[in-house]
Amino acid sequence: MPQAKLFLPDIADWLGKALDSIEPLNSITQSDVLVAEKLIELSQGLTPEFQEQREYLLKSGEKLKDVGTDPKWPRLRGRQASFVGESMAGARWRLTPSSSRELVRQIRLNSRGPTFRILNIRQERYWWEPQE
Q1: Among 108, 88, 84, 104, residue whose Cα is nearest residue 96
Q2: Residue at 129 is within a domain
Q3: Residue 85: in which H helix or E strand, if any?
Q4: Phi and psi (nearest 5°) for 78?
Q5: How much is the pLDDT for 107?
Q6: How many domains does the chain have?
Q7: What is the Cα–Cα distance from 61 to 15, expressed in whole angstroms?
Q8: Tens digits of per-residue pLDDT, 7-37?
Q9: Higher pLDDT, residue 52 or 117
Q10: Which range of residues forms the domain containing residue 73?
């Protein structure tokens, strides 16, 4: 996990982009048990374009449900997709949603420039997307 944690913000962005495509998600302004179930349902409905993200999210369905009942669920519309993405970024490494969000926050505060230069990655965010 030590090396993988460097890429948690990227996993969060990758998930967030897929979750942004789910229109109803960003209008959920309160967390509860129904939202937990709704997150599973919404994730199952991700389009084929986001098949990998769908599989990633559903593989950790219990953590996804935990995110849906998280008391820190954003009340401000439009923040939900990134909240879920940041919460689920560390699911593969069995991080809790709050630990995942905290690591993403910490890594985003500290430049990854030196490490990215070694890896020949030219930009901090969305580096995996094809260049135009």
Answers
A1: 88
A2: no
A3: helix 80-88
A4: 95, -10
A5: 82
A6: 1
A7: 14
A8: 899 899 999 999 999 999 988 999 999 999 9
A9: 52
A10: 4-118
